[in-house]
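Changelog-linked ticket: LMY7XDAE example.
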Amino acid sequence: MKAKVGVLISGRGSNMAALLYAAKHPSCPYEIVLVAANDPEAAGLTLAQAEGVPTFAQSHKGLKRAEFDRIIDAQLRRAGAEYVVLAGYMRLLSAEFVAGWENRMLNIHPSLLPKYKGLDTHQKALDAGDSHAGCSVHVVTSELDDGPVLAQTEVAILPGDSADTLAARILIAEHQLYSRTLADFVTRDR
Ligand SMILES: Nc1nc2c(c(=O)[nH]1)N[C@@H](CN(C=O)c1ccc(C(=O)N[C@@H](CCC(=O)O)C(=O)O)cc1)CN2
Ligand SMILES: NCC(=O)N[C@@H]1O[C@H](COP(=O)([O-])[O-])[C@@H](O)[C@H]1O
């Protein structure tokens, strides 16, 4: 049986797409049972729907963080999700939500954690004069970007790089790293 995975997105959804395309292969140990977004305008929703994956979307605006998270949690459980992956999900999740998915939730972050937690990671690496940046897949804990790192890919910083040109190259590495790391993660339990 393939592991059932729910994906949370906030926008473009290219990491979600990379996970979805990888899941099309018979050898892939997971299947995506739901794509949920905190923004009904998230472009990734259209992509998931076109691929026949169930979706759910609701704006978090006007709701308390935990209240909104309970709505998402209910949708994930209703879809039969056994794991949750965050793919460009730009909301801090409540401790209650995280506790409900302890050791069953992953996130992709565009830095070499523990360096540059939070936002604007590429500009921080450039401003620091680093030679390399990269991305990390980590288990999600209630502390932001603080959970155990499962895998990373280093990406060389090139002369003349801007935050955007660096982000574009790191995104390529993210797409490769996330599906492979998720496959290893769900296989370890089985
Ligand atoms: N409890 C946790 N929640 C989330 C984690 C985590 O490790 N623990 N990872 C993040 C993903 N993320 C970085 O990888 C991240 C997401 C959101 C923010 C942030 O500052 N969000 C603000 C609002 C920003 C906005 O709406 O544009 C907020 O939530 O108030 C920083 C880093 C996902 N959640
Ligand atoms: N702090 C979380 C964060 O910054 N996540 C980053 O947002 C982008 C989402 O792209 P996508 O929507 O195309 O997957 C990705 O680069 C991801 O690492």
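Closing comment: Example verified and attached. The chain has one domain: 3-187. The chain has a mean pLDDT of 97.
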